[in-house]
Amino acid sequence: MPRTVRDSRLETRAARDRLHVGQKPHFKTLVPGKLHLGYRRKRKDLPGQWLVRHYLGAERYHIAPLGLADDFQDAGDDVDVLTFADAQRAALAHKQARQRRGKGQGKTVADAMAAYIAEVRSDREATAADAERTATQFILPSLGRIRLTDLTSDEITDWRNTLAKQPARLRTRAGEKQKFKAAPVTKDEQRARRATVNRVLGVLKAALNAAIAPARKEGVTLDPTQWQDVEPFEKVAAARPGFLAVAECKRLINVADAASGFRQLVRAALTTGCRYGELCALEVRDFQRGKIYIRESKSGKSRDVVLNGEGVELFEQLTAGRSAGDLMFQRADGSPWRKSMQARPMREACKRAKIAPPIGFHQLRHTWASLAVMNEMPLMVVARNLGHANTLMVEKHYGHLHDDYIKKAIRA
């Protein structure tokens, strides 16, 4: 059942001026249990806004903006400024328009996610796979069945806030019950969880934005403000994980397991800045003229990584006398390195090298970037080798190192 609405006086400017100012709207019933006219005024020095609220069932509502109230300005010819009577008519017209939509009205968030993933998969398989996992785990269980025409900003906000309080998932074997970390308690745990939720919210918004044009072709008008108005959590970006000093890099290389082939992977990561998956996909033919060719990066694009002298020497050793189609990096038994196989040998190598706290393989990429910046490599060159379109990411995470060396040079 819809909750009982206590009608507010909205007919005159004087009546509205006596209402509480804030985010929460005041409502007046137009159709009992089904349709309400709303009014919200965020500040006394600004005009209020008319809203319409439709009851969807199961204690869910759809709220949409209608226009500004005539608190300071007469309605006149300005169609965005509405009197109380104008707002009533607009609310009823909005209800009738929703009823006329018909074709395509049944499309849900799950349909939008499926269409978006299929579109992305055509040229970015890795990105599509990641979006599919994100949708399956975090979006579809709560929002999947909601029709796009009924989706509200309140529902998305509630989902976002609930997700931020839930414990993070732990890696779980296929077929076993999903395992979780403890619920976030400390400030850093809450920050990390909110950062994850922001990434999930970005995937949801991308899918919903992609659904606007197809819906329009079917005669359905979606209201993008329902999700665009939901802001991501602020101040949740973590500082870039610490990087290894040169001495620590040498210790890590020396103790990394050579028999399994893991030591060569570590050396390659520290001399190229490439991701684990990019290194695992390299073939012998991808090393030519002092560069390695990454056929497909995380973004789906290819790139060349220019090597320094140490890197050239390493890849010359790795490719000597081998067939062009061989994988560059193989395990001791000749099998390829696959997803997550680097985790355990990395932990063991950090323990033997006395690197505490231990780092993950991906932080070798950060180490390469940090050392490159501190050795005064131009930021654009660092960005290109890492596979970034511009220097924004490099400046965000390593810019302080660059600034330190600029100051040092000026002082010298």
Descriptive report:
The protein is elongated. The mean pLDDT is 85. The strands form 3 sheets. It has a 5-stranded mixed β-sheet with strand order 1-2-3-4-5, sandwiched between helices. A 3-stranded antiparallel β-sheet has the order 8-9-10. A two-stranded antiparallel ribbon has the order 6-7. It is built from 16 helices and 10 strands. Helix content is 46%, strand content 11%. It is α+β, with helices and mostly antiparallel strands and 412 residues long.
Q: Please state roughly what percent of the residues sit in beta strands, choosing from under 5%, 5-15%, 15-25%, 25-35%, 35-45% or over 45%.
A: 5-15%
Which ranges are low-confidence, i.e. pLDDT below 50, for 5 or more consecutive residues?
Answer: none
What strand order characterises the main sheet? 1-2-3-4-5
The largest pleated sheet is described as: 5 strands, mixed
Individual helix count:
16
Counting helices, strands and paired strands, the structural category is: alpha+beta
Which word captures the global form?
Answer: elongated
Q: Encode the helix/strand succession as letters.
A: HEEEEEHHHHEEHHHHHHEEEHHHHH
How many angstroms separate the termini? 74 Å
Instruction: Please tally the β strands and state the result.
Output: 10
Radius of gyration: 28 Å
